[in-house]
């Protein structure tokens, strides 16, 4: 077998291995969770905050397909679902019951099923602090 043919076979095997979920040379890496709070999203109601996790990334370029939020029981989900903290799109709208600081935890999952490390230590403060 010629050297070119051997290289072509090796290249085809490598491309197939990576395309089917990676190999030991190019392992699938977990995504990285991140979010930004957006304040004053509802005119006249400073207690509503959008948590936008669209800045979460995946080092392999895989799509983020699930966002799992955790926070204290006194926050109320306004959108998209009033009963679920696991959603398939990056923005979650919440209502804070009183002025104060609230802890938020986020885990994101990529299209290959890998979960990020939990983003902990993140907080939102309502009403929005002055700059």
Describe the structure.
This protein is mainly β. Helices cover 13% and strands 35% of the residues. It has 1 helix and 8 strands. A 4-stranded antiparallel sheet has the order 1-2-6-4, with no helix packed on it. It has a 4-stranded antiparallel sheet with strand order 5-3-7-8, with no helix packed on it. A hairpin with an 8-residue loop joins strand 7 and strand 8. It is elongated, with a radius of gyration of 21 Å.
Kindly provide the name of the CATH class of the largest domain.
Mainly Beta
- The strands making up the biggest β-sheet line up spatially as 1-2-6-4
What's the count of strands? 8
The name of the CATH superfamily of the largest domain reads Immunoglobulins
**Sheet with the most strands, sense and barrel status:** 4 strands, antiparallel
Mean pLDDT: 83
* CATH topology assignment of the largest domain: Immunoglobulin-like
Structural class: mainly beta
In short:
By secondary structure, the chain is mainly beta. The chain is built from one helix and eight strands, in the order H-E-E-E-E-E-E-E-E. It has a four-stranded antiparallel sheet, with no helix packed on it. It has a four-stranded antiparallel sheet with strand order 5-3-7-8, with no helix packed on it.
Question: What is the secondary structure topology, with strand pairs?
Answer:
Blueprint: H1 3-19, E1 36-38, E2 48-52, E3 64-71, E4 76-79, E5 86-87, E6 91-95, E7 100-110, E8 119-126
Antiparallel strand pairs: 1-2, 2-6, 3-5, 3-7, 4-6, 7-8
């Amino acid at each position: 077998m010629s050297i070119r043919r051997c290289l072509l076979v090796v290249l085809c095997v490598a491309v197939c291995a990576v395309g089917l979920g990676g190999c030991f040379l190019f392992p699938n890496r977990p995504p990285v969770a991140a979010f930004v709070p957006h304040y004053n999203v509802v005119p006249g109601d400073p207690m509503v905050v959008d948590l936008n996790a669209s800045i979460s990334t995946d080092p392999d370029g895989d799509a983020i397909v699930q966002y799992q939020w955790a926070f204290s029981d006194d926050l109320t989900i306004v959108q998209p679902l009033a009963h679920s903290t696991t959603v398939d799109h990056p923005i979650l709208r919440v209502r804070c019951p009183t002025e104060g600081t609230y802890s938020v935890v986020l885990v994101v999952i990529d299209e290959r099923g890998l979960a990020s490390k939990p983003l902990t230590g993140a907080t939102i403060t309502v009403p929005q602090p002055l700059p």
